[in-house]
Design brief:
The complex is a heterodimer. Chain A is an all-alpha fold. Helices cover 63% and strands 2% of the residues of chain A. A two-stranded antiparallel ribbon of chain A has the order 1-2. A two-stranded antiparallel ribbon of chain A has the order 3-4. Chain A is globular. In chain B, the strands form 3 sheets. Chain B has a 3-stranded antiparallel beta sheet with strand order 1-9-8, with no helix packed on it. Chain B has 3 helices and 9 strands, in the order H-H-E-E-E-H-E-E-E-E-E-E. By secondary structure, chain B is α+β, with helices and mostly antiparallel strands. Classes of the chains: A mainly alpha, B alpha+beta. At the A-B interface, helix 7, helix 8 and helix 14 of A face loops of B.
Chain lengths: 478, 203
């Protein structure tokens, strides 16, 4: 136990209360110092560093609005759609709470995508922050599950058919798939049982996991310290420190970054409120129009697409056709050939490469494209977890990478956005050219591009002459 | 930590054995306790019971018309095809992935293993659920070029989710995401105008 501190009898009341608490709950006081007043963050944070705290803000908005929605919502296939409309029309201010929750879902993905992009360009996933990045990727994955299950709850046409499609993805897994899909649905079709369990997952199970991961993400971050736009370590053994050993390029999180983040929060809330009050459906992107029609198991809407934040991955799923499989098999053959002919692997290693390639090709020919579509879609998220070990660049930040790296990142973002756009649109949106579906070919090409960006990163990230990295962060007082 | 025990000889290995045994017993107990919870995910007895056969009156169905009825929560299409629509089945056969309904993902009953995939040539009975990811394809009965469809389209069905196309007998075209033809449910004719969906003569 920590030493019990005595305080003068004539001390002010506030000091007495503080002392009383500090003697009984020193952990809270230590935590305040470690995570707030003595957590030194680099002083050169820029615009991109708002999105971490904004993600926390949106998480709080979602939890609070969610608690109030549950007070009026009915998780029952016969009542769910009506209860959401009841919240919208009859519950005093219910429309506001509901729109905050639905707009918050999209806002969550906006800030999380920008937060991830920040990590990507400044190398925030590099040693020693690999675990921070991995916890972050896990948060992204869990957030997708949370959003997907939440989308079923209004029990509209898009809720129903979206769930139908995604649950059926699992039935594509060989052997166990159909039984697994049955276990997820709890019925032979998406129905009341599915709605009830998704409700349970959405309001309690997944949020608990999400909160745990957020805590792990922050604790790991505060252990290794924040990265910054220069990718220069401010707490390393050679970093400049003051007489007390505090980093010269760091400032305490509180009050400096708490005040800084309040500005970010203010701007964010302006944009958030503008959408909330003037365009809560956001032209059918945040709340799809088909979802204002009650779920009808007998009729799929003419055009079904997931909400915008899933569409890049959904495009990749759609891109995997039987023809695409031949292209993928060609990639496996090429990789195996390079592995055998152009590397210094031992004979045993080369043999392993060949056997793995042959097994993979056999599986690719034996199992239909639908399953591989699921693998590609899942792989597009899972591959992010491995980013720390794919990047071999001698410098962390994009600022000191060769200029052509910046164009590569720009192309990657462009491909991701186009995949997202195509995922919103109906198949064949760009018509036919020379008998080919242009949109499908583009999505197939960009699916390749997405994976090539990551899988070839160990090689391209090493190429080119990086610029000299300064010994201290670049910062101009303002 | 390794330095907490100054002398390895002081260690009592029997305690470690018991720790391992306790750990194993605890794991077995944990798994056993998890089984009932996982089991609650299975379809309930009520869900299993709700699978009875459905009787449909088809006397009012005119050529070219389609009705959709619900069987086990799924849409079942009953369509009386016109002679022109039946004639397209032969024309498209070269473009189909499985023209003879040999694939096994959704086995086609023997009485529907023919070009028109039905008992009576004009009357098609099929589950209107795409074999890809469970969307319900929409009617594209009008032949000719139109959005999302090839220029030599003969009439059939298009899945709005991932663009799989099916001919007038629910057979899937090549190079589409759907791995199989539309399912033909077990069915039989009770009379010329009465159709029973969900049971056939074998049952």
């Amino acid at each position: 136990m920590a030493e019990f501190k005595e305080i003068a009898a004539d001390a002010p009341v506030v000091a007495k209360v503080t002392n009383w608490l500090e003697n009984r709950f020193p952990t809270a006081f230590d935590a305040y110092r470690v995570h707030m007043s003595e957590y030194y963050a680099p002083k050169n944070f820029n615009f991109w560093y708002f999105f971490g705290s904004l993600a926390m803000l949106v998480l709080v908005i979602q939890i609070v609005t969610g608690i109030f929605l549950v007070m009026h919502y009915k998780p029952d296939a016969a009542l769910a759609f009506g209860s959401v409309e009841y919240i919208m029309r009859d519950v005093p201010w219910g429309w506001l709470v509901r729109y905050m929750h639905s707009t918050g879902a999209s806002a969550f993905f906006v800030v999380v995508y920008l937060h991830m992009f920040r990590g990507l360009i400044y190398g925030s996933y590099r040693k020693p922050r690999e675990l921070v990045w991995i916890f972050g990727c896990a948060i992204f994955l869990v957030l997708m599950a949370e959003a997907f299950m939440g989308y079923l709850l209004p029990w509209g046409q898009m809720s129903y058919w979206g769930a139908q499609v995604i649950v059926n993805l699992f039935s594509a897994i060989p052997f166990i798939g159909p039984d697994l899909a049955l276990l997820i649905r709890g019925d032979y079709v998406v129905g009341d049982a599915t709605l009830n369990r998704f409700f349970s997952f959405h309001v309690i199970a997944v949020p608990l996991v999400l909160l745990g991961l957020v805590v792990a993400h922050l604790l790991a971050l505060h252990d290794v310290g924040s990265n910054n736009p220069d990718g220069v370590e401010i707490k390393g053994p050679n970093a400049p420190k003051d007489a007390r050993g505090k980093p010269l390029d760091g400032i305490p999180f509180h009050p400096y970054y708490t005040v800084h983040d309040i500005m970010g929060v203010s701007v964010f809330l302006m944009v958030f409120s503008a959408i909330l009050f003037f365009a809560p459906e956001f032209g059918g992107y945040f709340l799809e129009y088909n979802n204002f029609i009650p779920a009808d198991p007998l009729k799929t809407p003419a055009h079904i697409a997931p909400v915008w934040y899933f569409t890049p991955f959904y495009s990749m799923l759609r891109a995997i056709t039987t023809e695409m499989m031949y292209a993928l098999i060609a990639c496996v053959v090429l990789t195996a050939a390079l592995g055998v002919l152009r590397t210094q692997l031992s004979t045993l290693g080369k043999g392993v490469v060949l056997v793995v390639a042959l097994v993979l090709i056999a599986l690719m020919l034996a199992i239909d494209a639908k399953f591989w579509g699921v693998v590609v879609m899942g792989g597009a998220v899972i591959i992010l977890f491995f980013l720390p070990w794919l990047d071999n660049s001698p410098v962390k930040s994009i600022r000191y990478r060769p200029d052509w790296h910046k164009y590569l990142y720009a192309i990657f973002v462009f491909m991701f956005l186009i995949l997202g756009y195509l995922g919103i649109q109906a198949p064949g949106v760009w018509g036919n050219l020379w008998g080919q579906d242009v949109a499908q070919r583009v999505s197939q090409l960009f699916t390749f591009g997405y994976f090539a960006f990551f899988l070839l990163m160990p090689w391209w990230s090493r190429m080119g002459q990086p610029k000299p990295v300064p010994s201290r962060v670049t910062f101009e007082a303002h | 930590m390794s330095d907490t025990l100054a002398d390895k000889s002081q260690m009592d290995p029997s305690k470690r054995t018991w720790l391992i045994a306790t750990g194993c017993a605890g794991t077995v107990g944990g798994v056993a306790a998890a089984i009932p919870f996982i089991s609650t995910f299975q379809p309930s007895e009520r869900a299993k019971a709700a699978g009875a056969a459905v009787e449909v009156d088809i006397s009012a169905l005119k050529p070219g018309e389609k009705v959709t009825i619900e069987w086990r929560g799924k849409p079942v299409w009953i369509m009386r095809r016109t002679p022109e629509q039946l004639a397209t089945l032969e024309k498209v056969e070269g473009q189909l992935a499985d023209p003879n309904s040999d694939r096994k993902a959704y086995p086609t009953p023997d009485y529907a293993k023919n070009r028109h995939r039905s008992i009576k040539p004009e009357l098609f009975v099929g589950v209107g659920i795409c074999s890809h990811l469970g969307c319900s394809p929409s009617d594209k009965l009008q032949p000719g070029a139109q959005p999302s469809l090839p220029d030599d389209w003969q009439g059939g069905f298009l899945c709005p989710c991932h663009g799989s196309t099916f001919d007038m007998a629910g057979r899937v075209f090549k190079n589409k995401p759907a791995p199989d033809n539309l399912e033909v449910p077990p069915h039989m004719y009770l009379s010329d105008s009465k159709l029973l969906i969900g049971e056939d003569k074998k049952a």
